[in-house]
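hey so i finally got around to running the thing on that chain from the lab meeting. sorry it took forever, my laptop kept dying and i had to restart like 3 times. anyway pasting the input first so we r on the same page abt which one it is
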Amino acid sequence: MILPSLLGVALLSACAGFLWLVIPVFIIQICIDKVIVQQEAGSVIALSIFAIVIFLFASGLEVVLGILTARVSQHPMPESFLKLAIELPKILLSLALIFFYNKNFAALTCLIVMLGSVIFCFIQYIRETYQSRVEQRIQSFVQGTVATSSRILIGFTALLTFLSGIALIVRSEITLGQLAVFICISVQLTISISNTMRSIIQPRPV
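ok and heres what got predicted. didnt touch it at all, straight out
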């Protein structure tokens, strides 16, 4: 009973993740490379309608996914299983897409994302190890550090991806629109991996 429910969650997550990836790939890239760079304004209306339709479909799938997730979470199982069912399809889709675009830049992006994820895991480990051993005022500081670590890692990932992509743009290996796509996907990867790690590293009872 639990396995089919997890597969249903994973399938819905994959569909929603695919639609959310369509927006940066087909809309942001085309807007930057065609509309802005090449000044082809004729496709703006069509792109706008397409973006709204994709957004509505993706939002609807997210609502259904949330309802199904709430039902599945009532079954006795580790929270990390449910989180993996939600985040793993998004991670695999993002990886497949960036490697399809540019293998070298995709490998570099993966290294950046993994570096950010390791930093997040280290911060989480410090919190779980020392939270019960320090004074209350220091505990608040540690908890606040972990609470903001995800946002810091998102900015860190986006910045490193941007700086690395600029060199490839200069060498004409990727376009400006493709760089924007890589930044969006690297941020999504960081969020998905961080969420997965947060569910795996469960707080220990004090």
